[in-house]
Design a protein that fits this description.
Layout: H1 2-9, H2 13-16, H3 20-36, E1 42-46, H4 52-59, E2 63-68, H5 71-79, E3 87-91, E4 105-110, H6 120-132, E5 134-146, H7 147-157, H8 164-169, E6 187-188, H9 190-197, E7 202-209, H10 218-222, H11 226-239, E8 251-258
């Protein structure tokens, strides 16, 4: 908890999805939420951060409940609330959603917690809780940070493997990284995600790369004019579910139905 608080107290989470390169991830996630959300749906966001998604959906008229662990993020969340939003925010943990009843929500967003859960037991618990509070036939969106784009960008481009701490976290043969709480982010490969989901009775609908090439070329994306950026988004949407390309994405979204 201390590591997370220190990180988010000093990180502009609220601004992360507002730059052009951040808008790719945000726009992609919203595109898929809109594909399934119906006007009267109840939505919950677990690990809501500063509320970028929760507020956007509430401003569209949805009833949104949010759960967030870090008080600093909740303070910003509350400051971003606009008149007329049907929204609540509760301080809580993705591993214990006992304040929320079974089968309550049509749409469940788990867009942050899997980044910060370091054991399979915790990961299964968070997924179980998200599914428990989702109605049968409801849709769950789960975000993950992916291993190999981080190896490419952080370990090689930025030289992270030259640091003995990070070198010890990376398998020298497979280059699969492990994480501890002080490292903040847990990294996954698709086989890790598939293994987790094999524990549940669900139907996968989409496996989406939400930023794809974007994080490799942030500066170029940020400098695009609006017309060129729209063209880039069309390309991004054309490739974001291609099985031969999703592995390049730093962030992915696993979208599935509770059956």
């Amino acid at each position: 908890m201390n590591f997370l608080e220190n990180f988010y107290n000093n990180y502009d989470e609220d601004g992360r999805l507002r730059s052009k390169h951040g808008l790719v991830e945000f726009t992609t996630t919203m595109k898929y939420i809109h594909k399934y959300a119906k006007p009267d749906d109840r939505i919950i966001e677990i690990g809501a951060g500063t509320g970028r998604y929760s507020h956007a959906l509430a401003q569209e008229g949805y009833r949104v409940d949010a759960v967030e662990l870090v008080q600093h993020n909740i303070d910003i969340f509350n400051g971003n609330t606009k008149s007329g939003e049907k929204i609540t925010v509760t301080q809580g943990n993705a591993l214990d959603l006992s304040d929320f009843a079974d089968n309550s929500y049509d749409i469940t967003l788990l867009l942050g917690p899997m980044y910060h859960l370091y054991t399979r037991e915790e990961q299964i618990k968070a997924l179980s809780e998200a599914l428990r509070i989702t109605k049968k036939g409801g849709i769950v969106f789960v975000a993950y940070c992916i291993n190999d784009p981080t190896i490419i960008q952080f370990c090689f481009e930025r030289g992270g493997l030259k640091d003995e701490h990070y070198k010890q976290l990376v398998d020298p043969v497979t280059f699969k990284a492990k994480s501890n709480p002080e490292d903040i982010f847990q990294l996954y490969r698709k086989e890790d995600i598939d293994s987790l989901m094999n524990s549940f009775c669900v139907e996968r609908l989409h496996y989406v790369g939400t930023d794809m090439a974007t994080n490799y070329m942030r500066a170029a994306v940020d400098e695009m004019d609006d017309e060129f950026f729209d063209t880039y988004l069309k390309y991004h949407f054309a490739i974001c579910e291609r099985s031969d390309m999703v592995g390049m994405s730093h962030h992915v979204l696993d979208i599935f139905k509770k059956v």
